[in-house]
Description:
Number of domains: 3
Number of strands: 4
Low-confidence stretches: none
Helix content: 55-70%
Number of helices: 9
Shape: rod-shaped
Distance between the termini: 11 Å
Amino acid sequence: MIQSMTGYGKAMATYGDKKIFAEIRSLNSKALDLSTRIAPLYREKEMEVRAIISTALERGKVDFNLWVEKDATEAATPINGALVANYYAQIKGIAEQYGIPQPEEWFTTLLRMPDVMTRVEVQELSDEEWAVARSVVEEAVAQLVDFRKQEGEALARKFSEKLDNIAALMKEIEPYEAERVQKIRERIVDSLSKLPVEYDKNRLEQELIYYIEKLDINEEKQRLTNHLAYFRQTMNEGQGQGKKLGFIAQEMGREINTTGSKSNQAEMQNIVVKMKDELEQIKEQVLNVM
């Protein structure tokens, strides 16, 4: 069954004092257009993340975000108490030595001194933590794929409805075809009867046959029927059929347009307009198919 290119997924897991989040969303695009935002600790795994996403999604404009949230008490930058005491002693000693007034707001002054609030820890990504983070990425991608499948089922139902409508409209043309031939014959004979000349009736019949054959739409109807069936078959072939369905829709449009150009009767042309409207709705939605 076909899949839509529109989707959304989000997952979360806990590792120690961290909450690891992955969020992914996609829209339609001619190819895979992947944009990633990855927390610094996991950036060394960006190529692996991209491989997971590209294998599962194939096409679409995809935005992916992987980030970490920590406990606020753990995330706060620690104050270097020893360094604060050292700065305090130095400033006080200099003030006493040179007769300079001591600061009124000691904490404001001391907290502005270099390296008082600098985090010096160096984080390394462990295999255990990455296994958890990777599972979060995979779960978010899986959710997006499920979303795409649900949207794809809705698109398939919509396409089937529109294909049925086109087939029904094509049937509505049939009664006007025989009527059209008779009207053409009557109109030409009536016009000739008003001319003050004699005409060869056998030659007239030959010309009528040639003229009517040029307006015959049986081939267009047969090809359109084949295209409708091929569109249905392609929908059931699985994912990655969006471009192929677009090509089939173009071929359907050619047959409908040719039918319209041969329909020199108002009732038939009105039906052709309705068929075009149904096809345009298919073409619009095909752009969302992966």
